[in-house]
Amino acid sequence: ENTIDERIPSSTEISRLWGGAYIGRTSDGSVVQLHRVGRLDPAPILAKGEDAIKDFYVSWMEWGLALQRKADLAVNRSVGVNCNIEIYDCRGVAVGQIASLLPGVRVFARTLSIGQDNYPENLRVCCLLFLPSMVSWVVNMVLS
Questions:
Q1: Going edge to edge, which strands form the sheet with 31-36?
Q2: Burial 1-14 (b: 16+ CB within 10 A, else e)
Q3: Please, which pLDDT band fits residue 18 given cuts at 50, 70 and 90?
């Protein structure tokens, strides 16, 4: 089967507020995450405190690794061959929102660095969809 109906098994309030979900896997076994950034309300998450956010993020990453191991075994591949695909759907995000949320963006950037530092092999590809035009322009300029 190519779908994953499971959300992270957590009773924390952050898990209910989180804008991401594991939604399936590719035909070659990579697990796919979808984050609906435009629907995310960061204020209640930030109110839980940076340590709680980091604890949740580690459990999110560990859950992703468990799903990846399950997917690798399902397609009869060595564990760790395929990695997660992260899709960030930014529909509904305005540049003004980003500017007003800079403190939250900084907390999330520090939290995401946990993934970079401790799970570097976990990311196959990251896709940013429906970026506001100014953000898209800046991203293209930085990547050029």
A1: 20-25, 31-36, 84-89, 123-129
A2: eeebeeebeeeeeb
A3: confident
β-pairing verdict for 31-36 and 123-129? unpaired
Please tell me what DSSP assigns to residue 8.
P
Whole-number Å distance between alpha carbons of 97 and 90:
12
For residue 3, what are its two tokens? 């779908």
8 A C-beta contact, residue 14 and residue 36: no
pTM: 0.78
CA atoms within 13 A on the CB side of 34: 14
Q: What letter represents residue 111's amino acid?
A: T
Tokens of 127: 């896709």
